[in-house]
């Protein structure tokens, strides 16, 4: 019996001869929700993979500047490094979790609050870290 819920089952289902497809389809018809609409993707974030459309420029730019960098190292760098999600104009009004933000301001107090000895004692995982560092005979257990 074929599992029609995963993509491998659907792929194998499409490779079967017509006679066996109709026989198995009649047995499993109650398991398949019938829908005529195509599957939708629910992602609203842009793809982070480099595409050819990201290399295109607006037609209002000057014709004296090349639209595609001539240096192969520079083009590879621009194709690999995505722009920050939080600065993207289409995402200005939405709240984005897990995005890189420039909020780092180094402070000894904040470092000790987050990674200090007392912070390690308060949580279970912190106590496990201290135990591992004691077992390794570390000279400093934490900040």
UniProtKB/TrEMBL annotation:
This is Large ribosomal subunit protein bL34m. It comes from Lachnellula arida. HAMAP family: Ribosomal_bL34. GO terms for cellular component: mitochondrial large ribosomal subunit. One of its GO terms (molecular function) is structural constituent of ribosome. Keywords: Ribonucleoprotein, Ribosomal protein. GO terms for biological process: translation. Belongs to the bacterial ribosomal protein bL34 family. InterPro entries: Ribosomal_bL34. It holds the Pfam family Ribosomal_L34.
